Amino acid sequence: MNKIFILFVLCMVAVGVSAQSTPIYLDSNAPIEQRVEDALSRMTLDEKIAVIHAQSKFSSPGVKRLGLPDFWTDDGPHGVRPDVLWDEWEQAGQTNDSCVAFPALTCLAASWNPSLARLYGRSLGEEALYRYKNMILGPGVNIYRTPLNGRNFEYMGEDPLLASAMVVPYIQGLQSNGVSACVKHFCLNNDEENRFQVNVIVSDRALHEIYLPAFEAAVKKGHTWGLMGAYNLYKNQHNCHNQYLLNDLLKRDWGYDGVVVSDWGGTHDTDQAVKNGLDMEFGSWTNGLTAGASNAYDMYYLALAYKKGIQSGKYTTRELDDKVRRVLRLFFRTTMAPKQGHGFLCSESHYEAARKIADEGIVLLQNNRGVLPLDLKQAKTVLVVGENAIKMMTVGGGSSSLKVQREISPLQGLTDAIAAMAPGVKVEYERGYVGDTTGAYNGVTTGQDLRESRSQSQLIADAVAKAKTADYVIIYGGLNKSDYQDCEGHDRKQYELPYAQDQLIEALAKANKNLIYVNISGNAVAMPWKAQVPAIVQGWFIGSEAGEALADVLTGKANPSGKLPFTWPASLQDVGAHALNAYPGKWRGAAKTGPDDWDFSKIIDEEYKEGIYVGYRWADKHKTHPLFAFGHGLSYTTFAMSNLRINKTDVPAGDSITATVTVKNTGNRAGAQVVQLYVSDPTTVVDMPVKELRGFQKVMLEPGESKDVTITIGGRAFQYWDESKGSWTTSLGKRTMLVGDAADHTPLRATFTVK
Ligand code: BGC
Fold it and tell me: Which stretches of the chain drop beneath a pLDDT of 50?
């Protein structure tokens, strides 16, 4: 009896204890804020300090004592980067970290299809989950200000509205898996040269109207859980700990409740890191991605130095608790979220997603005489020329470099497609030029042997000889992911194509009238031969499905519907930053001695003298003639846009207006068109661009089909940043709405008045 009673008491105690000991922070049904407060109240000073800085190249510790696991970040933004060693940049040598490479973000932006951005984010999130990554370091939304920027391929073009519309669903898709986005690089990181030392000077208006909106949308509409500070400075403070950008704007004005992550090696000072809005410090002592002190984690600015500062009374725990709350919130959204799937890697659905995005993002820039799609019924030989037809592009470019399970080259993709569609047609290959024959990044190698012994003139002569008898000649040229090309860390040195490609193209244009040039890049390039080349395709960096997707477009299996997310200038002089000599800036004192001079006290001021006149805004104002306008992109079918009607002609301030147009597919193939709605505001109160993109919608149409497309605009569409008030102000008065299919083709007009 006694024993039974004792057992009973023990059971009750056990039940009571377990009921009491389920802490709120472990209760996945409890509201996140309660979980955060509960966990915070249980943490020691050491634990708080530990969670706000890295413990390895890409992870930070959780709180083991409390059952909160390590937190793993990884690049981003086009696929999940292969694992590096704990404390080294070298490969960890895993065998399960080969991924699907999705098209670069310029290609995604060129699809002008936000639902594809959601698919992109969701698919990437599934790959990340499989790899136990809790945060993907991306997407990037720095505005395309100069075609020399080595990192434009990782971003979403020149227009704040387009970039905003595309970044939001990417974040939502990614985070629907419980994997955090880390939108980067906040902000004004618009070129790579001197990225640690450049202090950007920009008008408040350009900052708010051009450079911030995509970040603001990511925060307010995408509800991103993470955001990465940029390497550069603004108002003389590094952006990873910047009072104005992080405390005043992001956290106070925008109400951001997520974490600010430093860029790797972007933290420079304990005091500023404590006070100016940084929450998680990564990659210190690494000078970006190259050098690095081993096991330096206690030396981090937010590690021992911070702890000592708290212990000595220099700092209170006010800032620390704010940082830790944000980190805990991140944990409860990711590693400690109620439901986390397992994810999967390299699934067919991911390859399909990559191909779909690419099919819609590739841009048909020029198609004189209807050279494309290839008419394989009439052809015997197709000659493929160029290094970019065979070179793997998923390795290189900096931190976005990947280790892929497969990457189909353009040559392979086209050869396979032609074999399937027209087995009698022969595909031949000529190298044409030699670019960069290396193929390694951070321990991942392509394994390709691209050595070539022929001279440049011999390569051209050999290509020309074969071109003379081919039915079609397709050159895959452009840039690559090597240093000083489309690559992190530096900018391109020239607008012209590298590796004597202009000579090759001109020679081939003389040899064959059915010449097609496919440009592989994330940037515009000079095209002095444009008039001599009938067909030009912008082929981006597409990733795993490069070969298939390019073949889809060339053979007509996919009808191209991509539109340029940036203006393609004829020369650098047609770009504001260059015309005004406002790039790359002026050293304040001694200039840096070379690319590896990491002296952060040397500052170069880069003044964005062109203000809001970036991209088409500049082209319109100065009446330049871009080679291809922002929003431009052809199709194999034709469309007619007509009957623009608006639902009101007087729009009270704060209200919106709805426009409807009828779009008809007047050709004989199914295809998609993008309705682009620009507004011109001729107010004289402030200087205004000739027009600005205010809305767009992509519509798919069968041959002969018509659809009404409706776009509603309001709010910011009628506002400008008033520098004297420091706020958005509605400009009242007459407006013209211009609707069309490119910035240089807006034939439909309607007028209305904002009252
Ligand atoms: C890049 C970031 C990247 C980080 C981690 C930095 O050098 O600027 O975009 O996420 O490295 O690899």
Answer: 1, 4-5, 7-19
Give the integer Cα–Cα distance in Å for 58 and 77. 15
Q: Does the predicted TM-score (pTM) go above 0.90?
A: yes
What are the distances in angstroms from CA 408 to CA 104, 129, 404, 411, 577? 15, 25, 10, 8, 37
Residue whose CA lies nearest to ligand 1 atom number 3: 399
Q: Using CA positions, which residue lies closest to atom 5 of ligand 1?
A: 264
Measured by CA distance, the residue closest to atom 4 of ligand 1 is 264
> Using one digit for the tens of pLDDT, what is the confidence trace for 27-46?
999 999 999 999 999 999 99
pLDDT tens figures, 449-481: 999 999 999 999 999 999 999 999 999 999 999
CA of 398 to the centre of ligand 1 (A): 8
Ligand 1 centroid to Cα of residue 260, in Å, is 14
* Radius of gyration of the chain from its Cα atoms, rounded to whole angstroms: 27
Of 191, 263, 359, 741, the catalytic one is: 263
Exposure string for 466-497, b = 16+ CB within 10 A, e = fewer: bbeebbbbbbbbbbbbbbbbbbbbbbbeebeb
The pLDDT, as a whole number, for residue 598 is: 84
Q: Which atom of ligand 1 is nearest to the CA of 288?
A: 7
Closest by alpha carbon to 342, among 134, 132, 135, 121? 132
- Is-catalytic flag, 263? yes
